[in-house]
Specification:
alpha/beta, D-Maltodextrin-Binding Protein, domain 2, 5 helices, 6 strands, globular
Length: 142
Protein backbone atom coordinates (compact mmCIF):
# COMPACT_ATOMS: atom_id res chain seq x y z
CA UNK A 1 0.00 0.00 0.00
CA UNK A 2 2.88 2.37 0.82
CA UNK A 3 4.43 1.78 -2.60
CA UNK A 4 1.16 2.61 -4.32
CA UNK A 5 0.81 5.83 -2.31
CA UNK A 6 4.38 6.86 -3.18
CA UNK A 7 3.75 6.16 -6.86
CA UNK A 8 0.52 8.17 -6.89
CA UNK A 9 2.12 11.13 -5.11
CA UNK A 10 5.13 11.02 -7.45
CA UNK A 11 2.82 10.95 -10.45
CA UNK A 12 0.89 13.98 -9.17
CA UNK A 13 4.11 15.98 -8.68
CA UNK A 14 5.29 15.05 -12.17
CA UNK A 15 1.94 16.09 -13.60
CA UNK A 16 2.13 19.50 -11.87
CA UNK A 17 5.64 20.09 -13.26
CA UNK A 18 4.49 19.21 -16.76
CA UNK A 19 1.53 21.59 -16.51
CA UNK A 20 3.89 24.40 -15.54
CA UNK A 21 6.12 23.62 -18.54
CA UNK A 22 3.22 24.07 -20.92
CA UNK A 23 2.00 27.32 -19.41
CA UNK A 24 1.24 30.33 -21.51
CA UNK A 25 4.13 32.00 -23.32
CA UNK A 26 4.96 35.56 -22.34
CA UNK A 27 6.47 38.82 -23.56
CA UNK A 28 8.40 41.39 -21.59
CA UNK A 29 6.82 44.79 -22.20
CA UNK A 30 7.32 48.40 -21.16
CA UNK A 31 5.81 51.84 -21.71
CA UNK A 32 5.52 52.81 -25.39
CA UNK A 33 7.88 55.80 -24.98
CA UNK A 34 10.57 53.94 -23.04
CA UNK A 35 14.04 54.30 -24.60
CA UNK A 36 14.68 50.59 -23.90
CA UNK A 37 14.27 48.26 -26.88
CA UNK A 38 16.36 45.26 -25.87
CA UNK A 39 17.56 43.66 -22.66
CA UNK A 40 19.69 40.62 -22.06
CA UNK A 41 18.10 37.71 -20.24
CA UNK A 42 20.53 38.42 -17.38
CA UNK A 43 19.32 42.05 -17.19
CA UNK A 44 15.69 40.92 -17.10
CA UNK A 45 16.53 38.49 -14.32
CA UNK A 46 18.40 41.18 -12.35
CA UNK A 47 15.54 43.65 -12.78
CA UNK A 48 12.83 41.26 -11.61
CA UNK A 49 14.95 40.19 -8.65
CA UNK A 50 15.43 43.81 -7.62
CA UNK A 51 19.17 43.80 -8.28
CA UNK A 52 19.07 46.25 -11.20
CA UNK A 53 17.02 49.24 -10.08
CA UNK A 54 17.77 51.97 -12.63
CA UNK A 55 17.55 52.36 -16.39
CA UNK A 56 20.64 53.59 -18.26
CA UNK A 57 19.35 57.19 -18.03
CA UNK A 58 19.30 56.94 -14.22
CA UNK A 59 15.52 56.73 -13.81
CA UNK A 60 14.11 54.09 -11.44
CA UNK A 61 12.72 50.86 -12.85
CA UNK A 62 9.24 50.04 -11.62
CA UNK A 63 8.73 46.26 -11.53
CA UNK A 64 5.20 45.02 -12.17
CA UNK A 65 4.54 41.37 -11.24
CA UNK A 66 1.70 39.89 -13.26
CA UNK A 67 -0.18 37.36 -11.09
CA UNK A 68 -1.80 35.66 -14.09
CA UNK A 69 -1.17 32.09 -12.87
CA UNK A 70 0.13 30.52 -16.11
CA UNK A 71 2.20 33.48 -17.27
CA UNK A 72 3.67 34.13 -13.82
CA UNK A 73 4.67 30.48 -13.37
CA UNK A 74 6.31 30.34 -16.81
CA UNK A 75 8.18 33.61 -16.34
CA UNK A 76 9.31 32.78 -12.80
CA UNK A 77 10.66 29.39 -13.77
CA UNK A 78 12.18 30.28 -17.16
CA UNK A 79 13.66 33.69 -16.40
CA UNK A 80 14.17 33.82 -12.65
CA UNK A 81 14.82 30.11 -12.05
CA UNK A 82 12.36 30.15 -9.16
CA UNK A 83 8.91 28.73 -8.56
CA UNK A 84 6.21 31.34 -7.87
CA UNK A 85 6.31 30.50 -4.15
CA UNK A 86 10.12 30.79 -4.06
CA UNK A 87 9.85 34.18 -5.76
CA UNK A 88 7.27 35.33 -3.23
CA UNK A 89 9.53 34.25 -0.36
CA UNK A 90 12.49 35.96 -2.03
CA UNK A 91 10.61 39.28 -2.17
CA UNK A 92 9.50 38.96 1.45
CA UNK A 93 13.14 38.53 2.50
CA UNK A 94 14.16 41.53 0.40
CA UNK A 95 11.45 43.64 2.01
CA UNK A 96 12.13 42.61 5.61
CA UNK A 97 15.89 42.98 5.20
CA UNK A 98 15.38 46.53 3.94
CA UNK A 99 17.14 45.82 0.64
CA UNK A 100 14.16 46.61 -1.56
CA UNK A 101 10.49 47.47 -1.69
CA UNK A 102 7.93 44.97 -2.96
CA UNK A 103 7.17 45.20 -6.68
CA UNK A 104 3.76 46.31 -7.88
CA UNK A 105 1.43 43.29 -7.98
CA UNK A 106 -1.41 43.12 -10.52
CA UNK A 107 -4.04 40.42 -11.00
CA UNK A 108 -3.86 39.77 -14.73
CA UNK A 109 -2.59 40.81 -18.16
CA UNK A 110 -5.19 43.56 -18.53
CA UNK A 111 -4.16 45.20 -15.24
CA UNK A 112 -0.46 44.82 -16.13
CA UNK A 113 -0.99 46.49 -19.51
CA UNK A 114 -3.01 49.29 -17.97
CA UNK A 115 -0.42 49.98 -15.27
CA UNK A 116 2.55 49.98 -17.66
CA UNK A 117 0.73 52.21 -20.16
CA UNK A 118 0.34 54.84 -17.40
CA UNK A 119 3.84 54.58 -15.86
CA UNK A 120 6.80 55.39 -18.09
CA UNK A 121 9.42 53.44 -16.07
CA UNK A 122 7.36 50.28 -15.55
CA UNK A 123 8.32 46.85 -16.85
CA UNK A 124 6.20 43.69 -16.80
CA UNK A 125 5.43 40.47 -18.63
CA UNK A 126 2.16 39.41 -20.26
CA UNK A 127 0.86 36.51 -22.33
CA UNK A 128 1.81 36.77 -26.00
CA UNK A 129 -1.87 36.65 -26.88
CA UNK A 130 -2.49 39.75 -24.73
CA UNK A 131 -0.02 42.03 -26.51
CA UNK A 132 -1.40 45.46 -27.27
CA UNK A 133 0.32 48.13 -29.41
CA UNK A 134 -0.14 50.67 -26.58
CA UNK A 135 2.96 48.98 -25.10
CA UNK A 136 6.46 48.33 -26.39
CA UNK A 137 7.67 44.76 -26.77
CA UNK A 138 11.15 44.28 -25.32
CA UNK A 139 13.47 41.99 -27.26
CA UNK A 140 15.21 39.71 -24.77
CA UNK A 141 18.63 38.57 -25.94
CA UNK A 142 20.02 35.33 -24.55
Amino acid sequence: MKKLTVIIISFLFLQMDCMALYGEEYLVVCHKESPVDTLTSQQVQRIFLGKMKKWSDGSSIEIVVNSNKEVHAQFSRNVLNKSPSQLSNYWRKMLFSGKSMMPVLVKNDMDAKSYVAKHSNALTYIAITSFDPILKKIIVIE
